[in-house]
Specification:
The termini are far apart. 47% of the residues are buried. The chain is globular and about 70 Å long. By secondary structure, the protein is an alpha/beta fold. The chain has 19 helices and 15 strands. The strands form four sheets. Strands 1, 2, 3, 4, 7 and 14 form a six-stranded mixed sheet that branches.
Length: 427
């Protein structure tokens, strides 16, 4: 009798498990990685933790390469009738996703209370690239601003206060001159500053534009750009001058992906890159370093950046509700704290910073607070309809000025004309 009862219970449990698996909601989730470190493993750990808590949901987290690769794959899958339920794409992809008609507004799946408490709980600076037309299209997750990293040991060796980064454009040049080192043959062994000009050139350049006094490179409707504005010309002239006039930055196009390594290897004493590289640099830099806001000119300023969750058309109601629930869980304080600490991305909601873990982390790593505090001065990243084409136009203009093919004013005037031709139909 005991054996038969034991067998009955075992078979019942097996049937229950099979039934549960058969009724599980399956989700596909595309995610990119744009920084060093173990971000991919952290994402997979989050999805595993959610599934442990919600055994009726099965999430296949698919690492899809760079942001550009992920966007291309999501669009291709959607056009082919096999979209993911979720993807993390750049916040500035919002207009592209709307134009493709492949994403859904989150508002349709939320109560008024959830709209007020959840959507309303994200930092307003991040929502400027997440909402348009009165609807919410992206949920901030791996969000960032560019920040200045500086090598405190290099500062001390150059006779600079290792605790004080440059506060202005003028000081960045002065510090850069003291930090640029040459050997007896005149070859540079350490550059003063490095601002990457490939990968995400318009994003970092927007930090200079904001500091020059302009509230971003485009309007909030995504239909107009300001590439030839005086502030933009001034910003590009300054960027070019760092290498050509002041000789404190390596000439030519500087690679985005190589920048953290250039900093950690001592090739550049100051670098501009995402706060999302904080954990990578903190784990691997063989020297003490600082993190500061971008230097100001007319004002302080920096663009927001990074990725949002997008919800895709073409799924069942059960899948969409499960996807919404997962994103609400992933952006809740405990999980958002795990993600921020593991990667260096800015926790996108104030309630995350109120957790004991984040308070302890901020005390241990004060540099983690810089990007949060910089949100007060933040402007939106360039985001328009036909976004990839328009962004490529300004990126090409920046490159043309850097390599000397055109003056900054010429490059930006040409860029404005080309962008206007594309955006005219959307006005």
């Amino acid at each position: 009798m005991k054996h038969s009862l034991k067998g009955f219970l075992a078979s019942t449990a097996a049937v229950a498990a099979m039934s549960q698996a058969a009724w599980a909601v399956d989700l596909e989730f595309y995610f990119p990685v744009a920084v060093g470190g173990s971000a991919a493993e952290t994402i997979e750990g989050l999805t595993d933790a959610y599934m442990d808590e919600n055994p009726d949901v099965n999430i296949e987290a698919i690492y899809t390469g760079s942001y550009a690769d992920t966007t291309t794959r999501a669009i291709t899958a959607s056009r082919g009738g096999n979209p993911p339920q979720l993807a993390i794409l750049l916040s500035v992809d919002m207009f592209t996703m709307i134009d493709e008609d492949i994403v859904l507004p989150w508002d349709d799946f939320l109560s008024e209370e959830e709209m007020e408490e959840w959507i309303g709980g994200f930092y307003p600076a991040f929502m400027r690239n997440s909402q348009t037309g009165g609807q919410t299209w992206g949920i901030p997750f791996q969000r960032s601003t560019p920040v200045l990293y500086w090598n405190k040991e290099a500062f001390a060796e150059a006779g600079l206060d290792p605790e004080t980064p440059p506060a202005t454009w003028e000081e960045m040049v002065e510090f850069g001159e003291a930090l640029t080192l040459r050997d007896d043959s005149g070859n540079v062994t350490q550059w003063g500053v490095r601002i990457p000009s490939s990968g995400f050139p318009s994003w970092l350049f927007t930090g200079l534009v904001a500091s020059a006094g302009l509230d971003g490179l485009a309007n909030d409707a995504g239909t107009e750009v300001y590439f030839d504005a005086p502030e933009v010309v001034e910003a590009l002239e300054y960027l070019v001058s760092l290498a050509n006039e002041h000789e404190v930055m390596e000439p030519g196009i500087l690679d985005w992906g190589a920048t953290p390594r250039a900093f950690m290897d001592g090739n550049a004493a100051m670098v501009w890159t995402t706060t999302g590289n904080l954990t990578n640099i903190r784990s691997n830099a063989p020297f003490d370093f600082g993190v500061g806001m971008l230097p100001e000119n007319e004002r302080r300023g920096a663009p927001t950046g990074g990725g949002n969750f997008y919800l895709f058309k073409g799924s069942s109601d059960e899948q969409l509700q499960a996807a919404v629930d997962f994103v609400k869980w992933a952006t809740a304080p405990d999980q958002a704290a795990d993600w921020s600490i593991a990667t260096g991305y800015v926790a996108p909601r104030p309630d995350t910073w109120e957790t004991e873990r984040m308070q302890a982390y901020a005390e241990e790593v004060p540099g983690a607070l810089v990007a949060r505090e910089q949100l007060e001065y933040a402007v939106p990243e360039l985001s328009t309809f036909e976004g990839p084409r328009v962004t490529q136009i300004i990126n090409d203009a920046i490159a043309a000025a850097i390599v000397g093919d055109k003056t900054p004013a010429e490059a930006l005037a040409d860029a404005q004309e080309a962008a206007d031709a594309i955006l005219a139909v959307y006005r």
